[in-house]
Amino acid sequence: MSATLSVDPAGPRGWDEPVRIAVRGLAPGQPVTLRASLRDEKGARFRAHARYRADAGGELDLARTPALGGSFAGLEPMGLLWALEAERPSWRLLKRDVRTPFAVELEALDGHEPDAGRPLARAVLERRFLPPGVRRVPVRAGRVRATLFLPPEPGPFPGIVDLFGVGGGLLEYRASLLAGKGFAVLALAYYNYDDLPKTVEAVHLEYFEEAVSYLLNHPEVKGPGIGVLGFSKGGEMALAMTAFLKGITAAVIINGSVAAVRGTMYYKDESVPPVTFMKDRLKVTEDGFIDIVDALQSPLEETKSFIPVERSNTTFLFLVGQDDRNWKSEFYANEASKRLQAHGKEKPQIICYPGAGHNIEPPYFPLCRAGMHMLVGGNILFGGEPAAHASAQVDAWKQIQSFFHKHLGGES
Q1: Whether residue 305 lies in the annotated active site
Q2: Distance CA 327, CA 366 (A)
Q3: Distance, CA of 264 to CA of 189 (rounded, Å)
Q4: Are the C-beta atoms of 233 and 281 separated by less than 8 Å?
Q5: Beta pairing, strands 157-163 & 184-188
Q6: Catalytic pick from 112, 358, 373, 405?
């Protein structure tokens, strides 16, 4: 009897959807190594592997069989995805064109690595980023440079502005996946893209106001307010939007700053200057990465740099990786909470994830523990422990959806 490697459900699935991986037709107790391989759009290869032993019936089901070691250990049904590691040092897995899927090659080998022998079975796991029926609409409206993702008809839908961090450009994969959950999501570029500014040295919030207005006035977006989802520098921008702009009902801040960082924010005749970046506080790890977590002055010391969150009438959810080495996300979330409550505002929800690093992505993206930081100009430590980080991403994704459905309307 020849072995077969199956994926259930079969066929293309969303990147954020779990699948069941199993090998059948093995000998009872047979040692097997499973390998996964993916090549990104820039040609970089990512790999993961784990050692298993078939059960008495000659079956190996990742939902029931713990890994004995390799890239991960224990019962991890989706470990072959979240444990993928780049062959290029400090390379982050990103999806740049959501219209094409990633193909994950799966292979079962006889025996345990490093002495694994002949291939037993293969399968290809197609992981897509544009859910069936979701419409992708490029946006050039006034100054706004973005892509709007709309669920299959009919609308109207709860609207969300989606913001990424340092590096700029236009990343669409989180917005496209969220649109499959019943939201109209505007993936918004705000620098280093098309004719937008090349840096964040001066950020004018009128640009974001124009984007909010565009979304609120779209015939397939229901009001009276929208949501904003921001990660890292995008979290900082999202917080500033809630403080200065109208029309934002709910905001999710993923590892964001409560102070302006490396650039001044402007809105009409007001400005928020950046906190001081103290180069003498940079450290270098044994691996040669720059640890920048202590490099920013506290906004409690430089209060003019504290974004005036107390002006906001938005409901907040802060998602925090407690091993974030990019900056002090937990401290920032708690200080935002204190300031909001001191001004009689609703206490925000804060969810902290032990062992999670800075780059909290949709489920099953592999951890990027260290990588290039455009503003620092070198490879920095982002933090995170792979299994804990993977678990945090699954929970955070559920929290984001339920929070926006609750506060913007839509599915329960």
Answers
A1: no
A2: 20
A3: 18
A4: no
A5: parallel
A6: 358
d(CA 80, CA 281): 37
CA dihedral 239, 82, 88, 126 (to 10 degrees): -100
Which residues are registered as beta bridge partners of 222?
Answer: 158
Residue 412: predicted pLDDT: 43
φ, ψ for residue 23, nearest 5 deg:
-120, 130
Q: How far is CA 191 from the centre of its chain?
A: 19
> Which residue among the candidates 40, 324, 373, 389 is catalytic per the annotation?
324
Give the number of other CB atoms < 10 A from CB of residue 313.
12
What is the C-alpha to C-alpha distance for residues 99 and 256, in angstroms, rounded to an integer?
A: 29
Model confidence pTM above 0.85:
yes
Reading the block at residue 257, the tokens are: 């700053």
Bridge partners of residue 79, in order along the sequence: none
Residue 242's H or E segment, with its range, is: helix 233-244
Q: Which of 71, 90, 232, 305 is catalytic?
A: 232
146 bridge partner residues: 139, 188
Token readout for 375 is 């503003």
Closest to 173 (Cα-Cα) out of 237, 227, 213, 229: 229
In degrees to the nearest 10, what's the CA dihedral of 88, 385, 97, 263?
A: -90
Please give the structure tokens belonging to residue 320. Answer: 């925090």
Q: What is the pLDDT of residues 319-371, one digit of tens each?
A: 999 999 999 999 999 999 999 999 999 999 999 999 999 999 999 999 998 88
Question: The tokens 């699935």 sit on which residue?
Answer: 13
Is 402 part of the annotated catalytic residue set?
Answer: no
Distance of CA 405 to the CA centre of its chain: 19
Query: Does residue 358 have an active-site annotation?
Result: yes
Q: Give residue 280's region: left, alpha or beta (phi > 0; psi -120 to 50).
A: alpha
pLDDT tens digit sequence for 158-191: 999 999 998 899 999 999 999 999 999 999 999 9
Letter for the amino acid at 349? Q
pLDDT band at residue 381 using 50, 70 and 90 as cut-offs: confident
What is the SS3 assignment for 393? helix
φ, ψ of residue 392 in degrees (nearest 5): -60, -40
Amino acid at 243: A
Environment class of residue 171 by beta-carbon count within 10 Å: exposed (0-12), middle (13-18) or buried (19+)? buried
